[in-house]
Write a structure and sequence with these properties.
The structure holds two protein chains of two kinds.
Chain A lengths: L1 H5 L4 E14 L2 E14 L3 E5 L6 H8 L7 E9 L2 E2 L5 H7 L4 E4 L13 H13 L3 H14 L5 H4 L9 H13 L5 E5 L7 H18 L2 E6 L2 H7 L2 E6 L2 E7 H6 L4 H7 L16 E14 L9 E14 L3 E5 L6 H8 L6 E6 L2 E2 L5 H8 L2 E4 L13 H12 L5 H14 L16 H13 L5 E5 L7 H18 L2 E6 L2 H7 L2 E6 L2 E7 H6 L4 H14 L6
Parallel strand pairs in A: 3-8, 3-9, 6-7, 7-8, 13-18, 13-19, 16-17, 17-18
Antiparallel strand pairs in A: 1-2, 1-4, 4-5, 9-10, 11-12, 11-14, 14-15, 19-20
Helix pairs in contact in A: 4-5, 5-7, 7-8, 8-20, 14-15, 14-16, 15-16, 16-17
Chain B lengths: L1 H28 L13 H10 L6 H13 L14 H36 L4 H15 L2 H15 L13 H31 L2 H8 L4 H29 L3 H6 L6 H10 L2 H29 L7
The chains are: A alpha/beta, B mainly alpha.
Chain lengths: ~550, ~300
């Protein structure tokens, strides 16, 4: 950022009165409503907003990457030329060369059918007219630049052979291949684990120092903004509601929406239950092993131990946070404890040993143990009304209820999660992500459970909505003395929800203890890395 | 990969055995036999014939004999065309059916892919609607309508093509039957291609390719098409097996001496050995083409690995 500040503050990209419309069956939807944004050479600009704010569509429009039913009006001037009116061949001399872009989805943004080398070489040859051997040398240089180990070998790798973080590095290498003036980074770290997030952000900062391009961060993550951005645009519902120097916006936000965003971090903490509270769920040496491959003439299967000798004790009114990165086995553990997956070891629920209980034996217990999933869009049947969705469990567990009684229970459950009872006659697609997650919670609560496993219930939601859901879950716990297993990779949410934390890595517990102890004094190196990465990104502004 | 192919070929043996066994006994469950048609042979002659072909032996013994002959590559004599063995019939007819079927398949894959891609690139525009209309017509109009229409227009009215016959494999004789065979397949391929191409064009890596400023040709052909081709590859397996083993309707209407008619004729006449021969041939084609498809999959998609 030092060099960025020193660079001439010539405006290289200026978006004027940009409007983006999408033609839909319900008529035109205006996603971006006449905004003005500019980017100076070498600076870092953040466009911040929650989902649906139009922040991504603004940049998609600038790059002519809108979906086929979208159209943009206004102007996007890059060094005196309006990108919106350029011919396709002229535009393609700017895209990928002078302005390039990386995306939120590192797992799917590379072509799965071509090697990394092939995909890197293609834009280099196209924009610089190098021959194959020269372009290959350039590609290797780029892989070294983004710190991909063993680049010679990686040139021949396919995307599926690389991790999400490595793929995002390759994306960055492709974007920087032709020495762009502007790199647009659309939520570049959202899909990555927190330790990888920090690495990618460090890499971007380092590359900006070396190469001096301007970066436009499109993000919902205020931590990134605070740490990296020189200037900020806050967007809401297609409009820029506030803009200014990053420092000023954080110290002295003007617009109510900005203030709300800044205050949206979940706060508070949960007191542990009394020491003599009864134990609701206990697992001893729980193990889950997946078998991969094998079979007739196919050799020995590969055995993967997803959960490795884990013991856990959950008391009434307690919340245990299970923390770990993707692949650590935290969701598998949650499912094994509910007997949704076969496992070895001892599992007790209340005073019953359910280690080997089959479906039949588990059924009467199911109503006491409920599950809420991460994806509020995929976990509600689109063909059932909300009322049907949330009362379905009653049909199984309280078959004697009349239709009227079930309806009454649905009303109560919806009121309890803060939704209008009329919601029960509507369909899930009519609701926002946060409302759907409330519906999913109502579906669990209507059975009056004792244990709820919450599997990343807030990860797919905007920060401000996350906070509301966290508060709802805490209220429900207090009202009903619920026990939660709270599975999450998001440390700030876990800190606000859980009174005890288990840190998992590769199927094993690496550290556990009361929340405050873990946060104030993490012992294990992995926990420390996790904390450092999270705190780096969300709390402090480091000088670059 | 080689190991995988060998394993698949090995597992084909029990598969074939099950198919042969089921076909053999199912056929015998059906009433009647090869020598009791309405014309009626005298009881003595019939008894002689049945004795000669071993049809009086217990069923299990007949099955053992049949299997034994099959293992030696001997499909036995045809009961209804006693001058020929089943092997001879296939040696003569199969190349004809394979030629027609393969030509139709290649035509369908090429034309269908082009049409489907064109439709996808013009989604919800005129070009798309035209392809959809064509595909709907192609898959709803049955071959026994298409074939006579082709004969009528190209053969009788415009005198461009012969009305029928094989003509010792002259190109002009193949046009009609190949077109008739290909049309419904073109429709299916075009529909499949349209769907998978639309999906492929929406995928994130296509957005990346566009953001990198790659040419339309590269975006569409190199990046979108290769991914979109996978459903077509899997469709090609069963389609090839069906097309290459002949079509009763097309071969009958165009008087083509292929093997497509054998299955129906043989089944109606209870020509046991010919039915069994057809079953084995179709089964082998199906197994081989499915294997080829799976191998092709791994060639197109590096994520697919067999070991």
């Amino acid at each position: 950022m030092g060099i960025a500040k020193m660079a001439a503050s010539e405006t290289i990209l200026s978006v004027k009165d940009l409007r983006v419309r999408f033609r839909t069956l319900d008529g035109a939807v205006e996603a971006v409503k006449g905004i003005n944004i500019h980017v100076n050479a070498g600076e870092t600009v953040a466009v911040v907003g929650e989902s649906g704010s139009g922040k991504s569509q603004t940049m998609m429009a600038a790059m002519s990457l809108l979906a086929s039913n979208g159209e943009a009006t206004g102007s996007v001037d890059y060094r005196g030329r309006n990108l919106l009116t350029l011919s396709k061949s002229e535009l393609n001399k700017v895209r990928g060369a002078k302005i390039s872009m990386i995306f939120q989805e590192p797992m799917t943004s590379l072509d799965p059918l071509y090697s990394i080398g092939n995909q890197l070489i293609e834009p280099i040859r196209r924009h610089r007219g190098l021959n194959a051997a020269e372009a290959r040398e350039e590609a290797l240089k780029l892989l070294r630049l983004v710190h991909i180990p063993d680049p010679e070998r990686r040139m021949k790798s396919y995307p599926h052979e690389m991790s999400g973080g490595q793929r995002q590095r390759v994306m960055i290498a492709m974007a920087l291949a032709n020495d762009p003036d502007i790199l647009i980074a659309d939520e570049p770290t959202t899909a990555l684990d927190v330790t990888i997030q920090a690495q990618i952000l460090m890499l971007l900062a380092e590359l900006q120092r070396k190469l001096g391009m301007a970066i436009v961060f499109i993000t919902h993550d205020l931590g990134i903004v605070r740490r990296f951005a020189d200037r900020v645009y806050v967007m809401r519902q297609g409009e820029v509601v506030e803009e200014g120097e990053a420092e000023a916006i954080f110290v002295n936000p003007q617009h109510a929406y900005t203030k709300m965003l800044l205050a949206a971090e979940p706060t508070g903490s949960k007191a542990p239950p009394p020491a003599n509270a009864p134990v609701l769920l206990e697992g001893r040496n729980v193990e889950v092993t997946f078998r991969i491959g094998g079979g007739f003439l196919a050799g020995e299967p590969l055995m993967l131990r997803a959960v490795d000798h884990i013991s856990i004790r959950l008391q009434r009114n307690q919340t245990i946070g299970i923390v770990g990165e993707s692949g650590s086995g935290k969701s598998t553990l949650g499912r094994a404890l509910l007997r949704l997956l076969p496992s070895d070891g001892l599992i007790r629920f209340g005073d019953r040993d359910i280690s080997q209980a089959d479906r039949q034996a588990m059924r009467p217990l199911r109503r006491q143990m409920q599950l809420v999933f991460q994806d509020p869009f995929g976990s509600l049947s689109p063909r059932m009304t909300v009322g049907q969705v949330i009362t379905e469990g009653l049909l199984v567990h309280e078959p004697n209820l009349s239709g009227k009684q079930r309806d009454q229970r649905a009303v109560e459950a919806l009121l309890e999660v803060g939704l209008d009872p009329n919601a029960r006659n509507r369909y899930p697609h009519e609701f926002s992500g946060g409302q759907r997650q409330r519906i999913a919670i109502a579906r669990a609560m209507i059975l009056k459970p004792k244990l709820v496993v919450l599997d990343e219930p807030t990860s797919a939601l905007d920060r401000s909505v996350q906070k509301q859901i966290v508060e709802l879950l805490r209220k429900l716990q207090a009202d009903h003395e619920l026990s939660y297993l709270f599975i999450s990779h998001d440390l700030s949410v876990v800190r606000a929800m859980a009174d005890y934390i288990i840190v998992m890595k590769q199927g094993k517990i690496v550290e556990e203890g009361p929340t405050e102890a873990i946060f104030s004094n993490p012992q294990h190196a992995y926990t420390q890395t996790l904390m450092a990465a999270a705190i780096d990104v969300t709390r402090f502004r480091l000088s670059a | 990969m080689l190991r995988y192919v060998l394993r698949r070929l090995l597992t084909a043996i029990p598969t074939l055995f099950v198919i042969v066994t089921m076909a053999f006994f199912l056929m015998r469950v059906a009433p009647g036999g090869p020598f009791n048609q309405e014309r009626g042979l005298s009881p003595e002659i019939r008894a002689n014939l049945e004795a000669q072909f071993g049809l009086n032996d217990p069923l299990w013994l007949q099955f053992v004999h049949y299997l034994g002959n099959l293992l030696r590559g001997n499909f036995g004599p045809s009961y209804n065309m006693p001058d020929f063995t089943v092997t001879e019939l296939f040696a003569k007819g199969l190349p004809i059916s394979v030629q027609l079927g393969a030509s139709a398949l290649v035509l369908a894959l090429l034309l269908g892919s082009v049409l489907g891609t064109t439709a996808a690139l013009n989604q919800n525009k005129l070009g798309d609607y035209m392809v959809i209309a064509l595909a709907t017509a192609g898959s709803t109009i049955p071959t026994f309508v298409i074939a006579p229409v082709i004969q009528l227009l190209f053969g009788l009215t415009w005198k461009l093509l012969p009305i029928g016959g094989w003509g010792d494999g002259a190109f002009i004789n193949k046009v009609g039957p190949v077109l008739t065979l290909a049309l419904p397949q073109i429709a299916i391929v075009a529909r499949l291609m349209r769907g998978s191409m639309i999906e492929s064009l929406r995928s994130h890596h296509i957005r990346t390719a566009r953001a990198l400023g790659l040419s339309d040709w590269s975006v569409v052909v190199k990046h979108a098409l290769r991914g979109a081709i996978l459903p077509i590859v899997s469709f090609t397996g069963p389609a090839a097996a069906a097309l290459l083993t002949g079509s009763v309707i097309v071969e009958t209407i165009f008087s083509i001496p292929g093997v497509g008619r054998y299955f129906v004729d043989a089944a109606l006449n209870r020509d046991y050995t010919l039915v069994m021969g057809t079953v084995v041939v179709i089964a082998i084609f199906t197994i081989v083409f499915n294997l080829i498809v799976d191998v092709m999959y791994a060639v197109v998609d590096p994520r697919v690995r067999y070991d």
